[in-house]
């Protein structure tokens, strides 16, 4: 007696369509659940080419943190879902740890609880965590993390936290490498690099804080040649205020400036990267009165660090201002309209973003204290 063939879990759709049009678009947690459906899905979604394509489709989620007694929770802001799901838990850090940098779904942390500060690295999507070797000779400050194209290594750019003529230099080390630090020389402007590094066009970028000049300066670090260069920033009139944040959208570098007095936001975009030409793309006033009504406040002052320019992770490549007032986080579009808000106590914004990945990294098992599904993960 002939037996009927088992019904495919996807209702008869071609396997290629299911894998490369549906599964590749899922968030990491949902994709991991789908691997349990059948062996074919598990095999297809474990292949490295699929994982690379899956990572490329993940949105860049701005990272925030919420302080609590004894530590802080790292949260990813996802604007694609309902308001209740917008802040997704990423990891939980104790008082002795802090977030330093992010790159391709990896987070670089500093652990201060073991006497000498040391770096740790984790992947929230795979829930892997490990400590990096202690750097001898100085206490390091992480300037940024990046993937080195020629070798495929993930590398960290550091400098000493304290001034010391014997160690004043910028250094590079690779995750999982046994090679010593690479000294690339001192950068006098390092003390003026006031923003988190923004990766665009193969370079890390920082804004240099220069209060007395309207002409902004950008410091760039070529992640292939591993060398610094200065770039022209936008010429911002005094009426547009001070630097508030840097961002990247579709390969275009951007700078946001804010004016506390008039509640004005200016968004500058680098239209020509090679010629370093900037254009004022947006300029609008915060909907301050509407925000005050929602907060039920009489007087609210915009503070630097409370605003962050991010790309809305909904596939529309739009920009959104996230602005914190009191315990409220407000979302404002480029027309200056309030488009969303929610409230969370002791919530702070960062300029870092998380682009989740399930791509395996060989350096993890070789590092000290390597664990999976253990703290700092929730």
Automatic annotation (TrEMBL):
SMART domains (alphabetical): FBOX (SM00256)
Domain F-box: 13-54
Gene3D superfamilies: 1.20.1280.50
Record SUPFAM superfamilies: F-box domain
Superkingdom as given in the UniProt entry: Eukaryota
Pfam families per record: F-box-like, FBA_3
Protein name listed in UniProt: F-box domain-containing protein
Biological source species: Triticum aestivum (Wheat)
């Amino acid at each position: 007696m002939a037996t009927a063939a088992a019904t495919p879990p996807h209702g008869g759709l071609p396997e290629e369509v299911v894998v490369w049009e549906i599964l590749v678009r899922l968030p990491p947690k949902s994709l991991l659940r789908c691997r349990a459906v059948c062996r074919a899905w598990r095999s297809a979604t474990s292949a490295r080419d699929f994982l690379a394509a899956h990572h490329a489709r993940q949105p860049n989620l701005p990272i925030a943190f919420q302080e609590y007694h004894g530590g802080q929770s790292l949260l990813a802001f996802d604007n694609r879902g309902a308001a209740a799901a917008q802040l997704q838990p990423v990891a939980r850090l104790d008082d002795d740890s802090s977030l330093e940098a992010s790159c391709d779904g990896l987070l670089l942390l500093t652990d201060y609880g073991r006497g000498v500060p040391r770096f740790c690295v984790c992947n929230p999507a795979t829930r892997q965590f490990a400590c990096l070797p202690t750097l001898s000779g100085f206490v390091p400050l992480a300037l940024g993390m990046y993937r080195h194209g020629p070798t495929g290594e993930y590398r960290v750019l550091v400098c000493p936290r304290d001034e010391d003529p014997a160690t004043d230099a910028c250094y590079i080390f690779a995750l999982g490498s046994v090679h010593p630090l690479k000294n690339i020389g001192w950068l006098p402007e390092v003390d003026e690099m006031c923003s988190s590094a923004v990766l665009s066009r193969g370079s890390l970028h920082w804004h240099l804080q220069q209060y007395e000049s309207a002409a902004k300066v950008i410091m760039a670090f070529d992640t292939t040649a591993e060398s610094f260069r200065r770039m022209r920033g936008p010429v911002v009139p005094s009426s547009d205020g001070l630097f508030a944040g840097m961002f990247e959208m579709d390969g275009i570098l951007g700078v946001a400036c804010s004016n506390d007095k008039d509640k004005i936001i200016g968004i500058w975009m680098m239209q020509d990267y090679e010629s370093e030409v900037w254009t004022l793309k947006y300029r609008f006033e915060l909907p301050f009165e509407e925000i005050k009504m929602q907060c039920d406040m009489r007087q609210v002052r915009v503070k630097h660090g409370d605003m962050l320019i991010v790309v809305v992770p909904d596939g529309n490549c739009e920009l959104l201002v996230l602005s914190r007032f009191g315990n409220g986080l407000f979302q404002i579009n480029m027309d200056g309209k309030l488009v969303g808000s929610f409230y969370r106590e002791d919530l702070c914004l960062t300029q870092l973003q998380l682009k989740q990945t399930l791509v395996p990294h060989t350096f993890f098992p070789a590092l000290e204290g390597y664990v999976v599904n253990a703290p700092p993960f929730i």
